[in-house]
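Appendix C reproduces, verbatim, an entry submitted by the partner laboratory led by Prof. M.T., so that reviewers can inspect both the input and the predicted structure.
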Amino acid sequence: MQEHCSGPGLSEATGVLLVNLGTPQAPTPSDLRAYLKEFLSDPRVVEKPRWLWLPVLHGIILNVRPSRSAKLYRKVWTDAGPPLLRSTASLATKMSECLKHSGDSILVAIGMRYGRPTIRDGLLKLLDNGCRKLVVLPLYPQYSATTTASTMDALGDALKGCRDIPDLNFISRYYDHPDYIETVASSIESYWEEHGRPERLLCSFHGIPERYARAGDPYPEECRITVARLRERLGMSEEALLIGFQSRFGREPWVGPHTDELLQELGRQHVGRVDVVCPGFAVDCLETLEEIAMENRQLFLDAGGSSFHYIPALNDRDEHVLMLCSILRSRGHLFS
């Protein structure tokens, strides 16, 4: 039976759904197993035949990886919960206040591609409050089928039960938007004003298999364009501002150069100080707080480097809020 998928409220209200990757509910092996099962079962994430992949996933990976991942999550978990969920929720709250100043009736909710609150949860929250116009903003500046397209898949699934589909606008990327480049560059400069400048700045992005890029995924090229724009804005050379890709998984070749290998090589070259920033992550999460700020930091120092700094993600900073609101307005996504 199809649902109405709407509720009482302002019929002209616009709903903004912020989407992020997601997080386990707790840093325990059982919660990690549920989270990884959902994540790694997504055919957008692992593009292998189901008959080949699912036995490996259920027979090996889900019996081994949850315990290890739980230990990593415990390193970054706080009394307020997982950093990714906390920062995304705070970002949504601040964006709601920012958008209210425009004079329009705009509500903001969050949805996670994996875990809770789900994309369906966020949609229903907006629809139940009478939003008949929806803007979906995945917090992935650079488009990839593994993230952005997967979000669209989940969005379609969530709307399947709705009889009366609302007007819908979907923001697929903002990797070269001037406000995005300026905000990231300004956050880097603000960090340097307080901590001094490094000898090298490394922009690290989550990687994807080379096979995905060869098949047409534009993600690596959009990451490179983001870095080129940042070099221009910061006035840095290719030697001074580097690009790397992190978080490899499995045995097949992934897009490079690889962040961990770059940092080890810089350490062997006895580079005094390296700063790492992760422009593809809107808010801090396991991949930035543990993989970069802890694990990769140690790789650099053990290889001979002297000083390592991780520059935090934009998180719920006011500049990030204003930037996202500006992107919504400048592209006409608020139906103004």
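The chain has a mean pLDDT of 94. Additional entries are available on request from the coordinating office.
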